[in-house]
Amino acid sequence: MATMKNVHGNTVDHIGEAIVAGRYAAGMSMPPEPVLCEELGVSRTVVREAVKSLIAKGLVTTGPKVGTRVLTEEHWNWFDPDVIAWKAKAGITPEFLRDLLELRRLVEPAAVRMAAERATAQEIAEIEDAYAGMKRAVEGGGDYVTYDLRFHQGLLRSAHNRMLIQMSKALSALLRTSFEISTIRKDGPKRSLPLHRAVLDAVIARNPAKAEKAILVLIDGAREDIELVLGSRRRLPKLSNPAKQLKAA
After folding, report:
1. 47 and 125 co-located in one domain
2. Residue range 210-230: mean pLDDT, rounded
């Protein structure tokens, strides 16, 4: 049974990655079932089940006479972690990053307001722990990005809203890219550390307005960092690589 699931997952990944990378263009018909079976070395049942999964993710549609057709990007489910992972593998574009920044600016301030009202002592301790990891990386070198991600995921979870928790799972890969870009800038993490502290202090103080203001300063700083990196035409980091390590100060 596990092998069957594996074969299904690999088939979905293979076709999904090909669509997101543009190897099957929008509006184009997918190769017929027998061709896909031969290409992927799987049965017709596996191909059919994989296509059903891709329909659910908004990547393809099926119909009589047209077969399986690839849909345009606006139909894709951008909150599906698989779609996000395939996009990250294919390479995140500047336009996509700007969409992410706009989404963060809409979602995170509201989530942080709720976190300031609803976070439990345990959740605050976990965010505090993530902050301590970021601080260690800035002072002594090491993995800053993973702790930064943990910090923001902790805030979203503390809002105690199911939709936000789902969103945080899907956004993780994209947030990681955003944080990695910020670390490319000299002293980027060092400068953003006190801004993270201000957000955490406002949550601890149960001050929603102050928490919202502090996270906006943080997000706008990240946007500035990203625009500078995009303007310099440097290559964006690939998520298939391990998180960038900071050097000791």
Report:
1. no
2. 90
